[in-house]
Design goal:
Blueprint lengths: L10 H4 L1 H13 L2 E2 H8 L3 H13 L3 E8 L2 E8 L1 H29 L1
Antiparallel strand pairs: 1-3, 2-3
Length: 108
């Protein structure tokens, strides 16, 4: 049986809200805070914290503007974020394949 190395997992992507943010931005392109909040069903504080962490790590960028008198922050996936998400998904596919292979062996 091949050991599975979880130490290589990018913890900046792994959290559910961070993974949701990166996935939404990858699928839909740039999104504003309100859209991300609704899409992920997240509370303001948690979403803000996770967006800040992703931005600090260079995975996303933000642009602040005003629409009328209201502030609007739009987030976009950065190239480093695309690479991180791709690497994370590749690692997860490998682990899922290993689990499926192990389940097949045990079933026979």
């Amino acid at each position: 049986m091949t050991p599975i190395d979880f130490n290589g997992l990018d913890t900046h992507v792994h959290g559910p809200i961070r993974l949701g943010i990166l996935t939404a931005l990858q699928m839909d392109g740039a999104l504003d805070f309100t859209t991300l909040k609704k899409r992920l069903d997240a509370v303001d504080g948690s979403l803000n914290l996770q967006l800040k962490r992703l931005e600090e790590n260079g995975y996303i960028t933000s642009k602040k503007a005003f629409v009328g008198l209201r502030p609007k922050t739009t987030y976009r996936m950065a190239p480093a974020g695309q690479r991180a998400l791709t690497g994370y998904l590749k690692a997860m596919r490998q682990w899922l394949d290993a689990l499926d292979s192990d389940a097949l062996v045990k079933a026979t």
